[in-house]
Amino acid sequence: MSGIELAALVEFMTGDAPPGRDDDPRRGPVARRTLSAELAFVQNELCPRRAPVALRAGGFALQAALSPPSEMPGIEGRGGVWLALTIDGHPARIGLNWGQIRRLTGLPLESADPAEAALLMEEALTGVLDDLEHQTGLALRFTTLAQAPEAEPLLALQLRAEVSGPATPLRLNLPLLLSAGAGRALAEALRPQQRAHAQPLGLMLRVAVEVETMRLSLAELRGLRPGDALVLPDLPLAARLVVENQQTAPVQPVGEGPFPPIWALTAGLTPRAARLAPDAPAYRAPAMGSTARHLQDNSVTDHPSDTPATPENTQRPEPQAPATVSESESLDALEMRLSFRLGETLMTLAELRRAGPGTIVTLDRPDGALVEILANGQLIGTGEVIAVAGQRAVEIRSLFGES
Questions:
Q1: d(CA 56, CA 331)
Q2: Strand runs (DSSP E) across 218-356, as ranges?
Q3: Which of 21, 154, 207, 229 could pair with 393 as two cysteines, CB 3.0-4.6 Å apart?
């Protein structure tokens, strides 16, 4: 072994550089990440093989998983800040950028005082934090925002999370720094989740109940306004369970009220694409309110003899110019599949594999909650269930953007 290699080995083992070798261009930098015995124990407690933790908090569905990062996470120089917080009184840090903060809270806090910004974030997320504290037993407090974490020994982890709500799901990949006390408290809170999802590689999927089979043309969809009411079809025939927009099964309500939170499957799950064939029958519901829509039934004969005979025309018809249809008129006639999402919940992959006729699904939907209006699976607004002339209908409360 050469002297240079021996010097590098000594530096790696002891952490001290031999004297007189600092300016040697042939010596490569050697570094290692050290972890105290206490922090190593906490990391083993927090990062076993477990399914993502799934919670419902503040009207959102949360899925999160912890893993050790390949290297020390850093956010400096990338427009990010560290949110300082306490977990049961023990310090911790989460790295966020300003765009993520704005999406989570809806507040522009870039110019606010760091301590005031943390307080405003805590107030904006009060509903989520209260539910998390109730379900985990932890006390969570935000203290300040900082450009760099403090120099105290902290355990570096990677927090991967997905937040699902009325808008597009928000996927986060954040650096998380925990003190030993915060890590122990978090590990204790997650231990019941580890027992609940003991199967390897467990997966939680979003499950919703939707009322589908309603078709509107693009022109009719553009004509919808808040205050219009759309009559719903017969629920036992039209309500369906939808799993991640991939699988579907018919369901019927179980319990009291027009839209109870408990539903029962009447058949097994099938791929959703199989039900979207172009020749599939579609229910077109009339709208009541500012614009009324009426459908006319076309008469259909079942036997050739029922069709009245027409005299043959022996004269050659004069050629006519082909009809021209503008591009806008062609798009206005495009049919859109309108559906109403009544509520959501989370189910494990094992539960969905066992699902079949008679399986009960309970939605996380409080009484009186608004339903979501979707066009071709995309959220376009919200509505309230009402009764009109003895029929159930959805009165449009809000529409998002322009159709």
A1: 40
A2: 229-231, 239-243, 247-253, 262-265, 270-271, 287-288, 335-348
A3: 229
Query: Three-class SS of residue 328?
Result: helix
Closest by alpha carbon to 117, among 99, 93, 142?
142
Average pLDDT, the chain: 74
Angle, to 10 degrees, between the axis of helix 98-105 and the axis of helix 114-124?
Answer: 40
Instruction: Please state the pTM of the whole predicted model.
Output: 0.45
Residue 112: CB partners within 8 Å, gap ≥ 6?
120
Residue 319 in any domain: the answer is no
Report the domain count for the chain.
Answer: 2
**pLDDT band, very low/low/confident/very high, at 316 (cuts 50, 70, 90):** low
Q: Same structural domain for residues 208 and 267?
A: yes
User: Which domain, by its residues, includes 110?
Assistant: 37-193
Cβ-based neighbour number of residue 344 at 10 Å: 19
Question: Do residues 158 and 63 make contact, with C-beta atoms less than 8 angstroms apart?
Answer: no
**pLDDT tens digits along 121-137:** 999 999 889 988 988 89
CATH of the domain at 159: 3.40.1550
pLDDT in tens, 139-198: 999 999 987 777 677 888 888 888 877 666 788 888 999 999 999 999 888 877 655 444
Q: Residue 398 class from Cβ within 10 Å (0-12 exposed, 13-18 middle, 19+ buried)?
A: exposed
Name which residue leads in pLDDT, 390 or 359. 359
How many angstroms separate the CA atoms of 112 and 105, rounded? 14
